[in-house]
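How a chain folds remains the central question behind the approach discussed here. No coordinates are needed to read the tokens, only the vocabulary itself. For completeness, the protein is quoted in full, as a sequence line and a line of structure tokens:
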Amino acid sequence: MGLLKVQGLFKAFGAIRAVDAVSFEVRPGEIYGLLGPNGAGKTTTISIISGLLKPDAGEVFVAGHRFWSDPQKAKRIMGVVPQELAIYDELTGRENLEFWGRMAGLSSSDAKSRAAELLEALTLTDRAKDAVKTYSGGMKRRINLGCALLHRPQLLLLDEPTVGIDPQARMNILEFIRNLRASGTAILYTTHYLEEAETLCQHIGIIDHGRLLAEGTLSELQERLGGDRVFVLEADFKDASPDAWDGFHQRFRVIQKTERQLAVAAIGTRDPSECLRDLLGLPVRVENVTLKRPSLNDVFLQLTGRELRE
């Protein structure tokens, strides 16, 4: 059983189903990526798991125990890094870490020594005595992450921890998170960055409008679209209707159609050369065909009908 198990979570705000029958689990030494656009239900899910919100239905299990049977015990196991920075600008980096260490139950001496460890690990020792208000966006994100790690949580909830920072700062944070996973930490990671989910996460759940539409490893999600065989056709598709093409939907699944492009996944196990012959025989003048391995964005398009960045 996973260190975190979420079972049938449901939360509504009026007529809006923010989280709708969501279930998944996160095991020790695993990063589970919850991938979806802004407003998909990622932060609400994190808020329920961390105890900030009570679900209307469903259960959260932490280390095999129901969260609400002993919330304090569950919270001692987890660390939470919110999307909004939970740090004090007027305090120094060291003071922020020591404060959150004491809040997590550490003694004064333990908080000091652990803060020193984290400042070193986050490469912030040289700025430890500076007020956080003088930090760059990436440095603030690192301190925000460090504040959740003072008590060495077995489970870490990361809500979009790299949003709004430069590529170098993002790379530093992602490397730090990989090291946490390697040490055995179970990590729930929400993001709307496709490349982060593809390179960082062992399992990925795609969420939109509060519903978990698909989950699995990257290769399992790619297999949903025909494994290695996604074709992108360039032509004038302005007045074209794939629904009207004889036998087309028995052989191909449409991922996306625009006026100039048609992306399709082959159905079944036919050879790519056979698929290519079928596509070149369509009742449109095809100008170019590209064969590619399906991306997470292709999977997302197929499930939701829109690109993740929309």
Observations:
- The chain is about 35% helix and 25% strand.
